[in-house]
Inverse folding.
């Protein structure tokens, strides 16, 4: 499993960032899963720069700018330079703030150009009886992959995060059966861009109210490759229990 802990803006002190990093190192050292943490930009620079563990780092976002006169922007080059290997792109919270598919594409391209692995977030705001949300997901994926070369497409990670499931309890979030259907649907779209066995090699993650109480069922009943964990990744006990639940 690829398990990504997105700290968002929950972790504001360096002391807490260090404590969570220590937990991530212990979990990664166990060797059961690939552990990636996504601290805020200042903490990313501090922690990733001296990293000697098997923990990997992701940036929570990057700029669409290539650098230069762009005050306050954090570029793909800067993120790669401090030791990150992944970057979360198109997160629902960024899209809610006005980020378009065109902007997401720019960020994906900048990430790839600097050797970063983009974690491309997709997801529907709500579900409708006519299943129009499926077309929405297809569009989100297709607009990105159409613009990439065959080799670049192989380097993408897809994170499915249905917006309606975020912030819910485990019992209110997606069911294992529904998640399995969505993974199969996303994989089907990927086969249109990555023929042969290419699509099967793309990691598909799930994010949306992932907790230790539901992660085992979600992993066992679907072909999901990992999880994008939000708030639960900022509590040492919760994150440890979550990772161990699928060990």
């Amino acid at each position: 499993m690829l398990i990504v802990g997105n700290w968002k803006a929950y972790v504001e002190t360096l002391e807490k960032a260090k404590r969570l990093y220590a937990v991530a190192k212990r979990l990664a050292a166990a060797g059961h899963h690939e552990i990636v943490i996504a601290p805020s930009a200042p903490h990313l620079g501090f922690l990733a720069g001296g990293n000697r563990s098997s923990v990997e780092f992701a940036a929570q976002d990057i700029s669409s700018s290539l650098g230069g006169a762009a005050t306050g922007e954090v570029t793909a080059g800067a993120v790669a330079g401090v030791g990150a290997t992944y970057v979360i792109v198109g997160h629902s919270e960024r899209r809610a703030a006005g980020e378009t598919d065109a902007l997401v594409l720019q960020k994906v391209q900048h990430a790839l150009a600097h050797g970063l692995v983009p974690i491309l977030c997709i997801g529907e705001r709500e579900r409708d009886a006519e299943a129009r949300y499926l077309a929405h997901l297809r569009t989100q994926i297709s607009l990105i992959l159409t613009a990439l070369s065959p080799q670049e497409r192989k380097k993408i990670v897809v994170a499915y995060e249905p917006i309606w499931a975020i912030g819910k309890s485990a019992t209110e979030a997606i069911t294992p059966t529904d998640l399995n259907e969505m993974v199969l649907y996303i994989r089907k779209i990927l086969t249109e861009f990555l023929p042969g066995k290419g699509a099967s090699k793309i990691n598909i993650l799930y994010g949306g109210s992932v907790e230790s109480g539901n992660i085992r069922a979600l992993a066992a009943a679907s072909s999901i490759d990992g999880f994008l964990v939000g708030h639960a990744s900022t509590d040492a006990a919760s994150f440890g229990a979550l990772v161990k639940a699928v060990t």
